[in-house]
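call fold(seq) -> tokens
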Amino acid sequence: MLNLERLRTLDALARHGSVSGAAEGLHVTTSAVSQQMAKLEREIGQPLLAKNGRGVRLTDAGRLLADHAARILSQVELAQADVEAQRGCAVGELRIGAFPTAMRGLLPGALTALRAAHPELRSFVREQEPEESMAAVVRGDLDLALAIDWHNKRMPVPAELTRAHLLEDSCDIAVPTGHRLADRDRISLAEFAEDDWISWNEGQFCHEWLVYTLRGTGIEPRIAHIAEEHHTQLAFVEAALGVCVTPRLGRGPVPAGVRLLPVCDAVRRHVYVVWRADADRRPSIRAAVEALQVAALNV
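ret:
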């Protein structure tokens, strides 16, 4: 009899390509991953992993079993969804990943309504960038993820996931009050050709979007500073260290030394929620999506 947790470990290894990646995805130690794989190899009676330099790779038997493991885990997800649907009520735990501005501007209202309507449903929320949280939903580490893409640059959504639109989030350009454009009612991005920019971490989707968008207006962006949080970016703007894009969702108080300028060709983010297609029938998923959509109407 194959052990489900060991199959889950093998599936994580196949997805991540390394013991350390699988351990991180499963929130266990690398030693625990190695132990589970050793036990699975003894149950199967043949090696599933082979040395590959300093790492490991799946053997032919390992890849074959990993394919079966992915299908088995998907069937388990469907079974759990059917059992929950048969009960007809949202219960248990719902694990949600969300990017920072959605954590502040959308989730508090949605989770409050969800708790009131479904008191037996417990919510656990983790702050993550959309790329990370969507990958966690695919792996089964999270049930839902809040994600974004931009009006002119879409984020790829894995085929295993279903998505639902929540809201359009407009963004402004934040400049110091002493900036040459600070007294304008509206501006265009092309007017910032000589400015320094404060951006998100390199490699993040939003950083790539900013570089892509500025180059599309003929500007070679001068990224002067990198800051993860929007409030940190605004503090740098107030100190006249550059300008930044700031979304309206979850914005909060703006420093006195900062002026927000709307963009002529509106800069917008599309905010949406994703979940595994094979969990579509779970009442908890449907209840959470509905609560998020209602909360989005009030933003």
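The mean pLDDT is 90.
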